[in-house]
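Researcher: I'm preparing a figure for a lab meeting and need a structural model of a single chain. I don't have an experimental structure, so a prediction will have to do for now. The sequence is pasted below. Please return the structure as tokens so I can convert it later.
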Amino acid sequence: MNPLRIALLFSAFIPALWSPAEAALSAQEEKGALELSGSAIGKEVGDYTLIDQDGKKFRLREFAAGKPLIISLIYTSCGHICPTITMNLKNAFQKADKDLGVKFNAITVGFDVENDTPQRMKQYGGNFTNAFNSWRFATADKLTIEKLAKDIGFYYKKVTGGFDHLNAVTIIDAKGRIYRHVYGLDFKPEDILGPVYQAAAEKLDYKQSSGHEGGGIIDRIILFCYKYDEKTGQYKLDYSFLIGTVAEAITILSVIIFIWGKEIKLFFLRRLGR
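Model: Understood. Here is the structure written out token by token.
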């Protein structure tokens, strides 16, 4: 058995460890989503009318007020990924302190138009901030959400139990153009604030991405083994998910060893020259 066959064997079983609504995109979907996202760099975002967490309508450029704008798209019933992204944005904004609202603004938009009402957005946003002046949580009608997502190159698809979507935060420059995407879940404050301050100073260097390209396998394992508690705003170990995942992994590895164990052993013995 050659190394490629072994790699393909393991990669074929890895997706079984993730539940459909919280799974990473397939390799083909992720490639297409990243290409779509990258193609949006430098393009202008439309001046759409959104509805904030208090039910008030506002226009995107009016809220940006000639400053860089951070946009993140989420859905409020997302159990793990969206709260993680939003929590890391909160960490970045805490580090930015008074610069939020002075040098840049931020907006989190719910793309689940059937469920992400202004009330739901306010409840969701309240887990991360108690001041919505410079960081709004908004929603809109289906057509507006689709157009906004297309403009910023954000991929999402409804699936059983939720949505598959690209994990990304978008930074728009003061002229309303896509400046940078920050991919992944575990980005640090500087991954967000670095390009934001560049955009604020108009020291623009357009490129496709920064931060993490979707997060590593260890990050994903850690992410899925923890459950976000909206009441405390913290993550708690999800024992039932962890036990189920470990049991499933052991079963898969046992099957692999039982069926291909001899070939794998011979392969490594040949590699060691024995």
